[in-house]
Every structure is written in C-alpha cells, then in structure tokens.
Amino acid sequence: MNQDEFALRVRQALNDGAERLDYRTVLRLEQGRSRALARQRRAGPATVRLPALQLATAGASPVDSSGGGWGWLRGAGLIAPLIALAIGFVAISHWQEELEIQRLAALDFAVLLDDGPLDAYADQGFGVLLRAEQRAEH
Amino acid sequence: MVDGGRRRAALRRTLLAAAAIATIAILSGERALAQGKASAPVGGPAWNQLSQQQREALAPLAGQWSTIPAESKRKWLEIADKYPQLSPEGKTRMQARMAEFAKLTPEQRRTARENFQRAYELPRESRESAVEQYRLLPDDKKKELTEQSQRKDAPKSAQKK
Q1: Is B119 exposed, middle or buried (0-12, 13-18, 19+ CB in 10 A)?
Q2: ipTM of the complex model
Q3: Whole-model pTM?
Q4: Nearest-by-CA chain A residue for B105
Q5: A40 in contact with chain B, both atoms CB, cutoff 8 A
Q6: In chain A, positions 2-31, which contact chain B (CB-CB < 8 Å)?
Q7: What is the pLDDT of residues A10-53, one digit of tens each?
C-alpha cells in the first residue's frame, strides 16, 4: 500500500465514522458550535494595550484600558506617580504650616517679652502714629 | 495616530487631575493659621496631656486652653519650649502678658504683630515717642485714629477680596 492509498483509506474511514454518529451527538456538537460562535461575536475584537509607562507593575500582565472610569489613568501608567505627587503636595503643605507656626511663635514670643503696651500694639490707631513716625524719619 | 491622540488626551487629563490635587493641598495648607480664623477647629492636646514644664509655662492659659484652636495650641507649645530659657524677670513679664494676649481677637493679634514689627523698624526714640503720644491720647481720639486706619485699609481689603 503506497502513501496515497493509505491517506485515502484513512479519509474514508473517518467519513464513515462521522456518518455513523448518533443523531443526539451530532445535535449536541452543533449546539456547542453555535454557542461558541455566539460568545466570540459578543466579546468583540480583543484589545490589548501596553501602558506607555509601566512602573511597579512590571512583569504583571498587560492592562486592558478599555473598561472603567479610571481605565485611562491605568492605561497611562500614571496612578503611582499621581499618588506620589499628591503625597508630595500634602507633605509640602504640612511643612509650610509648620514653618508658619514657628514664625508666629517666634513673633508672639517677642511681643510677649516686649515692654511696649499690648493694648497699643493691638490698636490699629497706634499703627497710624507709627506710620506718621516712619514718614517723619524719611 | 489614534493611540497618540488618546495618550495626549490622557496626559492632559492627568495634568488637570494633578493640578486639582495640588490646588486642594495648597489651599488646605493655607488654613487660617496666620489669620487665626475663629472657625479654626478646637482640638489638639488637652491641658492634662501637657508636660509639667509646659503647664508651668502656659499657666495663665489654663482656664481657656480647651477653647484655643489646635493650631494656636501648637504655637503656644512652641512658646512654652522657649520659656525655660528666660530670666525670672522675663518669665514674669511673659506670663503677665500671656492671658491678655490670648484674649485678643484674631484681628487684634494680627494688628499687634504688625504694629510690633513696624515699631521695631523705628529708632528707639521714635518708637517711645509714638507710645507716649498714644498713651496721652484721650479715648475718643484713639477711637478716631482707629476709624481713620480702618477707612484707609478698607479699599485695600476690598481689593484683596
């Protein structure tokens, strides 16, 4: 038996087998095929996008940025830098607050130690007299 | 092409979000500290949580400590840390003025700081002269001067708003 003849025999045997399948089996196979095709149509074309800048997630699976309100952020790989930025701003803000407290403390300490009248310092009218003295100086 | 456009749009949104976060953070840092707004939250450590040395330094404030805003408390605690370095005379003077200073309104405290700084820009004689002039003024004249200053400052504060 040469090769061509052998191939022909195998094909015939397979076709004969298929024709002899039970009708229930054929029906189930047909239903399965229809379901699989329907699922594929619903899913649509798969979009896989690699982030432009992938930081700590290197090695993780690529992120599909098509879903969710924050998908664009994840897609841009910018969540981590953004969080770092926010933390930085909050830290700077606290640092400025601390500096301001120290400035006020130093100033109030000097006012409290001074022998000038506190009621005069607290009066805007006294400021008018001080400005007049400043003008006289110049 | 399309991906490039999307990326630029995403970058723009990111920058906008960052700017928004920055604005919120900075505004939160600008909390009425210098102004000592009356709406500042009362909080911070309770009187009995202070150290013995802090309680001794801030003794004139004991009665009103619970009503002092948290940020002002932090400022007073800074002052309390410097208190032990003072001479006995300095300690007495500071404590004598402490309660009076704490009773001032935030606006008066701000004025006191401004006037103090302005006074020390003058030579000693001019400063003492201004104090003497003020001391000799009758109350109605003092009031007049205050009103005059407020009228002068009104356009400035309107511009600030």
Answers
A1: buried
A2: 0.73
A3: 0.60
A4: A122
A5: no
A6: none
A7: 677 666 666 666 777 777 888 888 888 888 887 766 555 555 55
